[in-house]
């Protein structure tokens, strides 16, 4: 019996092809009620299947007068060239469209700013076919950052973590890629209260534009807790978050995509308890009902080493944080984390006719914040978890990982059986397993930390596992800065379970 098997009250466990896959009952019930066989993905995925075109929507790059640069990485692991276009959107300027060619078994980097004079520039990448995958890079003096790009615009976007302490800069970047205006309602939650500023209700995003909201200017100055919800009343959009940390325990820069849906479960591959590391789980419940949560720390498949889950409540419309370093039962070291609702997301009651009615409870959004200290400086990383529906046997890293960087990849085994993973580099010969990394063992309900050998050219990396896993990358922040930035790889999800609304 493993840590995961102890979560019988949280999940339904199905044996499929010799391994275990976990589906949340509430999500299945919601899907049935919606009359759809597809799940709304909260994070970007690579959708399996055959389609004529695919689109990727990147969260945005700050320009800052030329001191910051950005690029869009497009990888093609197929045997055929890919063509497409890159459209750069900004404020008060016409879209800039350029043609794109990505040769077979290669990747290209495209300038994400393109000489546009604007505070932020967002990119839309449209590809012919399904083989290409995309991510965004920001080169910032406070720390380089890699962000995933969305598969499609969405109506709702959520950010659990926010921070404007010590006059740190948090900006919500809203991109409307459509030729019609989008109308949104924006609310935010601080430690003390929830606010719905009148000027942010019925807020209009002009067609094919990028709008930036500095949260301190919206009444959230010097806040250590700051969750944001963006809900479109008309149209759809892309929402990103730019964070420049300037003190009060945080330093550095991150740019990330929001969560386009809530989920009952969130996985994190790279948890860490260390005297030089502070780690927080920031949990945002944007719904109207309190949720009971179990937080499981996945250290190994040995039941004797299994830790009892931490039990907390996520109040409706509020944010709760958990400092993992203050859990006395959690030993020092590395571990995976599962944050899951434990009330199954279903409440019963009576409708007006007196018959039993089922009310689906809203789910949560969870982000992990790590502050690593060396001497008198700190490196802050923020990463959104992966929902259970994103666990996959195949993961893609469009721009690869830095060869020789110690512990550049962390793999979390979400199953109760040992898993083998092959790390493959895409080159002229296609996807070829790396020497010594063709059969990396990931313990049952455990993690594996992988270093890619020195000398490998920077190219797309594919992770192929024998059962569902979660893959997270730890990247150099550049500029001789300490610490690592964090971003997940992109999971491959069958078209039958991936929700991809038309863009």
Explained architecture:
The chain has 503 residues and is mainly β. It contains 1 helix and 41 strands. The strands form 9 sheets. Strands 3, 33, 34, 35, 36, 37, 38, 39, 40 and 41 form a 10-stranded mixed β-sheet that branches. Strands 4, 5, 7, 8 and 10 form a 5-stranded antiparallel β-sheet that branches. Strands 13, 15, 16, 17 and 19 form a 5-stranded antiparallel β-sheet that branches. The longest helix is centred in the first third of the chain and has 10 residues, at 25-34. The chain is globular. The relative contact order is 0.18.
Query: Could you tell me the strand content as a percent range?
Result: over 45%
- Give helix % range: under 10%
Average pLDDT confidence is 87
Profile the largest sheet.
10 strands, mixed
Q: What's the alpha carbon Rg, rounded to whole Å?
A: 21 Å
Write the layout of secondary structure elements.
Elements: E1 12-16, E2 19-23, H1 25-34, E3 46-47, E4 53-57, E5 61-62, E6 69-76, E7 82-89, E8 96-102, E9 106-111, E10 120-128, E11 132-139, E12 145-148, E13 156-159, E14 169-176, E15 182-190, E16 194-195, E17 203-205, E18 209-214, E19 226-234, E20 238-247, E21 250-257, E22 265-273, E23 277-285, E24 291-298, E25 310-314, E26 318-323, E27 333-341, E28 346-350, E29 356-360, E30 365-374, E31 377-384, E32 386-387, E33 392-397, E34 409-413, E35 419-427, E36 430-433, E37 440-442, E38 447-450, E39 461-476, E40 484-488, E41 490-493
Parallel strand pairs: 3-41
Antiparallel strand pairs: 1-2, 4-10, 5-10, 6-9, 6-11, 7-8, 7-10, 11-12, 13-19, 14-18, 14-20, 15-16, 15-17, 15-19, 20-21, 22-27, 22-32, 23-26, 23-30, 24-25, 24-27, 28-29, 30-31, 33-39, 33-41, 34-38, 34-39, 35-36, 35-37, 35-39, 39-40
């Amino acid at each position: 019996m493993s840590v995961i098997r102890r979560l019988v009250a949280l999940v339904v466990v199905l044996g499929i092809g010799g391994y275990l896959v976990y589906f949340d009952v509430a999500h299945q019930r919601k899907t049935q009620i919606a009359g759809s066989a597809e799940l709304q993905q909260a994070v970007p995925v690579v959708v399996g299947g055959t389609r004529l075109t695919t689109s990727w929507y990147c969260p945005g790059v700050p320009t800052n007068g030329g001191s910051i640069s950005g690029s869009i990485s497009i990888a093609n692991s197929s045997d055929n060239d890919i063509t497409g276009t890159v459209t750069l959107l900004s404020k008060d300027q016409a879209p800039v469209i350029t043609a794109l060619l990505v040769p077979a078994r290669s990747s290209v980097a495209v300038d994400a700013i393109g000489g546009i004079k604007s505070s932020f520039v967002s990119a839309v990448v449209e590809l012919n076919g399904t083989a290409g995958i995309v991510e965004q890079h920001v080169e910032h003096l406070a720390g380089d950052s890699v962000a995933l790009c969305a598969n499609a615009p969405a109506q709702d976007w959520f950010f659990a973590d926010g921070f404007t302490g010590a006059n740190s800069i948090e900006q919500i970047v809203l991109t409307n890629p459509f030729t019609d205006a989008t109308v949104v309602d924006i609310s935010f939650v601080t430690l003390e209260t929830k606010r719905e500023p009148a000027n942010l209700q019925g807020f209009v995003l002009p067609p094919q534009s990028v709008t930036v909201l500095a949260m301190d200017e919206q009444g959230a100055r010097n806040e250590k807790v700051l969750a944001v919800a963006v809900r479109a009343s008309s149209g759809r959009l892309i929402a990103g978050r730019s964070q420049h940390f300037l003190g009060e325990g945080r330093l550095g820069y991150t740019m990330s995509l929001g969560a386009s849906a809530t989920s009952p479960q969130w996985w994190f591959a790279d948890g860490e308890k260390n005297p030089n590391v502070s780690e927080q789980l920031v949990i945002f419940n944007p719904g109207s009902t309190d949720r009971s949560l179990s937080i499981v720390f996945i250290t190994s498949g040995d039941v004797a080493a299994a830790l009892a889950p931490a039990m907390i409540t996520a109040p409706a419309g509020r944010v709760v944080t958990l400092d993992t370093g203050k859990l006395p039962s959690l030993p020092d070291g590395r571990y995976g984390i599962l944050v899951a609702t434990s009330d199954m997301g279903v409440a019963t009651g009576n409708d007006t006719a007196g018959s039993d009615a089922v009310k689906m409870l809203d789910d949560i959004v969870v982000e992990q914040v790590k502050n690593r200290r060396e001497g008198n400086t700190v490196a802050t990383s923020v990463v959104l978890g992966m929902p259970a529906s994103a666990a996959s046997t195949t993961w893609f890293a469009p721009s690869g990982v830095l060869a020789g960087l110690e512990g550049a990849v962390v793999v979390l085994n979400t199953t109760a059986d040992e898993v083998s993973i092959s790390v493959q580099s895409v080159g002229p010969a296609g996807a070829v397993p790396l020497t010594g990394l063709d059969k990396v063992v990931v313990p049952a309900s455990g993690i594996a930390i992988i270093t890619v050998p020195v000398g490998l050219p920077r190219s797309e990396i594919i992770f192929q596992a024998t059962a569902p896993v979660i893959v997270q990358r730890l990247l150099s922040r550049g500029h001789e800065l300490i610490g690592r930035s964090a971003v997940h790889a992109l999971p491959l999800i069958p078209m039958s379970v991936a929700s991809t609304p038309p863009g």
